[in-house]
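Data card: per-record layout.
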Amino acid sequence: MAYVLQVDFNMDGPFGEDMADAFSDLAKSINEEAGFLWKIWTESPETNEAGGIYVFETKETAESYLNMHTKRLASFGITKVNAKIFAINSKLTAITNGPVS
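The structure for this 101-residue chain is written out next.
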């Protein structure tokens, strides 16, 4: 069963193309994380928020990534991180065209 990790936090930027340029190496490194399947990057310049929706193979790999990522964000001065982990109901997700098998 796959698991979703939902993360968001306050951030002053960069956003848009500047964010894509600034974090492309980080994006590439996330592909190497144990159990990682995919991520949707989220941003709201209007509210100074950013984050992502991740999918991991197991709850344990999602928890491990969250632990590491929270420490990494703290090193950037981001200490308030909202995060939740959910199991994915793959049968219902398939009906609604979700990319989870």
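Known properties of this structure: Residues 59-75 form the longest helix (17 residues). The helical segments are 16-22, 24-30, 59-75, 90-95.

See the next section for split statistics.
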